[in-house]
Amino acid sequence: MSKYTLEAIDEMSGFGKSNFIKWPFIKFSATTRGIAPVGTFTKLSGSDELKAELLGKKINVVILHRGKFRLKNAELISSEVASSKEQVDIFTKEKSKLCDHGDYKEMKERYKLNTHQFPYVILNGQDVARMAVLPGSLQRFWEYLDTFKSDERPMYFQTIVSAGAEKKSKGGTYFEMAFTRGEKITEDKLDIVLDVLAQLDSDIKKNELTRAKKEREYINQHEGIDNLEERPMIKSDDIEISEDGEVIESET
After folding, report:
1. Does residue 168 contact residue 247 with C-beta atoms inside 8 Å?
2. pTM given for the model
3. What are 158-206's pLDDT values in tens digits?
4. Domain residues of the chain, as ranges?
């Protein structure tokens, strides 16, 4: 056997797949506009929602990583960022065309976009997945994270995520996501959880390196193209699903 791993050979030669590492996607049906029953969770391992696994009205997760943020409305979607202090690309959902670029807060205000967050979790003690926290539930999610004391971390406990209160907005009636602290992770299992977190951190960083490489190639190929619509879309590092159909018209 060669001293070089297949992964190392692919990295050096360029023959390996350059796809981003992808995780299953947990989606909450906040309204009746989705395929799944309202107030339920589904797990998608690809883009076909008809093949989604129905998880029911309550899931047990361990929150590993805060994840990234993305701006959306019915027509537009942004690239993902780790902070609102970063800049974002704005794409049309229908044709995936780049239509604007700028400061996160400025783009949010200009196009009346809603914030979504995608933390990484361990689902039901098994799979690592990305969980979509929708605009109408973000405040409750942040308030829940604030309940952890200075020497506590979310991954030290299980978190029960369920359908919460029914709310009304300009877009109609929707359900919030509710977050409740569950049992504390035992010491023998905490090390396993932290090992999963370490691997996740490594995988996220690999994705960032891949993205940086693709962006450098993109800049080199399209240098001098001023017309944003002539530039192709840089694919996101998450599963490309049908953009959930759960957009709430106003953030509550």
Report:
1. no
2. 0.78
3. 999 998 877 776 666 788 999 999 999 999 999 999 999 999 999 998 8
4. 20-222
